[in-house]
UniProtKB/TrEMBL annotation:
Name of the protein described by the UniProt record: FAD/NAD(P)-binding domain-containing protein
GO molecular function, one term: oxidoreductase activity
Residues in the signal sequence: none
Organism: Coccomyxa subellipsoidea (strain C-169)
Domain Amine oxidase positions: 11-446
Highest taxon above the source species: Eukaryota
InterPro entries xrefs: Amino_oxidase (IPR002937), FAD/NAD-bd_sf (IPR036188), Zeta_carotene_desat/Oxidored (IPR050464)
Lineage, broadest ranks: Eukaryota, Viridiplantae, Chlorophyta, core chlorophytes, Trebouxiophyceae
Amino acid sequence: MQWRCKNGLDAGFGAAKHLSQQGYNVTLIDASPNPGGLSAGWRTPQGRAVEAGIKGFWYQYHNIFALLRELGIPWPLTDWTTSGFWSPQGLTTEAPVFSRRPQLPTMLGQFVHTLPLFKRLSLADRATMVPLLAAVVDFDATPETYARYDSMTALELFQKFGVSKALYEEFLRPLLLVGLFAPAEELSAAAVLGTFYFYTLAHQNDFDVCWAKGSVSELIFDPLVRRIEAAGGNIVGGRLVSGLQLDELTGDVSAVLSRDRAGDETVHPADGVVFAIGISGMQKLVAGCPELGRRAEFARIANLRSIDCIATRIWFDRRIATQFPANVLSGFEECTGGTWFNLNDLQDEYKGASGAVIAADFYHSNALMPLSDEAIVARIIDSAVLRFPKAVTHFSPGSYASRPLQTTSFGNVFMAGDWVKGVPHGANGLSQERAYVTGLRAANMVVDKLGWGVHADILPVEPDEPYIAALKGANRGVKSVLSASGIRSPFL
């Protein structure tokens, strides 16, 4: 059986791995000569590793952690680390390792364990976060409720629920600029609440994070590629998907067309197809492929947006002591967030180095994109600046309606990636875990469609804590009664 995948991040490779292991003849097609999207890595001419930003692995990444164990590789991740949040005024707060602290009910635990860590934010300001609990309980109670939250901005949400200006400026705004890569006035309130819940609010330990002990590409991605190829999968780089051929009887896709850089076209017969690609890449594909552009769910993708990112890495001639190995930056550039990492503390390759190695990544970096490399970094021993225009999903207000489901109007075409909707899994936002899970779900849809193989196991996030589950259940019950009576919900 022939199966084709247009690659994107972890989604395409997750689907390719499972289907190749089920005996499918898998071909994974990528426009880049170095397949892997934002999982790819390089070496500078001097042999130093660079990659598309530093990627964190959060406490609820159960499926990715299971993949790493399955690959049988030396454990590639650090222990959980502390992180610092910085503004031009200095240190704002730090994120401790919550799993090492006494376990308390969610939200109470986060509040208690960070109580002494905020440097400039008063207890009264922090308390203005409490009313947002009502929105957290309410926002996904029904599809109609979610749509209402999606239609408003996160800034409007914060104002509606009384979040103080100080709490927003000192903490929430920086968190959004590095968590969803845009300021609150440009983000869907529903997407923000879903992301906050997955990464920070559902359980005390959710914000615990670890990092790769070296290049993600070399430590994790390369072993994954070898596993796919060992199972018979074929990974093809440097080819752009240029069209589809349809079966005249069923209307399903019967072949995928691709072109190389010289313009030579290849026909890839296909019983099933998964598009696992980012928004900007999918928009280009739809624009150049009339078979897709004529279908409403693909045409709506033109309404979506994506965000510019810059990744830098700088090698210094001497060591630099830093308070935290991982750090969040905000307020240094209007509407741009940043992170920086001391790789001497995180990556094995640099622990004994005589000079410091710092990685700094910038998100929503529109204003920085035109700058020269020299204007972005000061060259010391070596440096690398990587620009990724329109690289990551922009969960803008109202975007949910235009995001595709994993199933499409083609019977044998499926979607994967962190931006697809209708995924019954708790991983949300710009999440490697969400992307990987959608890849596994797409593989399962291919198995169901073609009737060969077994489903990939997909591990759920931890269930809601009892009091949160009780509040959500009560809220849904109230909404049901009000709806039956023709009365609108008291929240949104």
